[in-house]
């Protein structure tokens, strides 16, 4: 089970930190990623890392602004979002799975999803 938190409303240029807590019988070796979906748009991959070490991978639109990380226990995933832009407004989801190389940010390759947390950036 995955549960996101940390979303909210912020002005452009501001920062937010999202968290995703994993519980239950979790595999310790898998990809964990952040995805987002804005109204009327397809879900897109934002960032992902491999829990045992690997990655991270970032979408070009967030490189240099967002940082994905995990805690030492590997049961909480984070997304530090800085220099937020209006176009970052979306529902953000964390997900776990085993995507193939080259498809790390492909949401269709992830099996486990949280319920999402809303991020709203005002310009």
Keywords:
123 residues, mainly beta, 7-stranded mixed sheet, 4-stranded antiparallel sheet
List the helices and strands and how they pair.
Layout: E1 2-5, E2 8-11, E3 16-22, E4 31-37, E5 44-50, E6 57-58, E7 66-70, E8 76-81, E9 90-97, E10 110-113, E11 117-122
Parallel strand pairs: 2-11
Antiparallel strand pairs: 1-3, 3-8, 4-5, 4-9, 5-6, 7-8, 9-10, 9-11
Describe what you observe in this structure.
By secondary structure, the protein is mainly beta. It is built from no helices and eleven strands. Strand 4 and strand 5 form a beta hairpin. The relative contact order is 0.31. The mean pLDDT is 94.
Based on CA inertia axes, which overall geometry fits? Answer: globular
Succession of helices and strands:
EEEEEEEEEEE
Question: With helices defined by DSSP (H or I, 4 residues minimum), what is the helix count?
Answer: 0
Q: Give a short account of the largest sheet.
A: 7 strands, mixed
Task: Give the mean pLDDT.
Answer: 94
Helix content: under 10%
Strand content range: over 45%
Radius of gyration: 13 Å
């Amino acid at each position: 089970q995955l549960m996101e938190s940390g979303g909210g409303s912020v002005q452009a240029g501001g920062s937010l930190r999202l968290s995703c807590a994993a519980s239950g019988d979790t595999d310790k070796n898998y990809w964990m990623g952040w995805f987002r979906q804005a109204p009327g748009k397809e879900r897109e991959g934002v960032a992902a890392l491999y829990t045992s070490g690997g990655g991270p991978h970032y979408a070009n639109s967030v490189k240099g602004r967002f940082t994905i990380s995990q805690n030492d226990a590997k049961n909480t995933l984070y997304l530090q979002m800085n220099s937020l832009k209006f176009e970052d407004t979306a529902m953000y989801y964390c997900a776990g799975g085993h995507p193939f190389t080259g498809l790390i940010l492909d949401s269709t390759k992830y099996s486990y999803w949280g319920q999402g947390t809303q991020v709203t950036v005002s310009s």
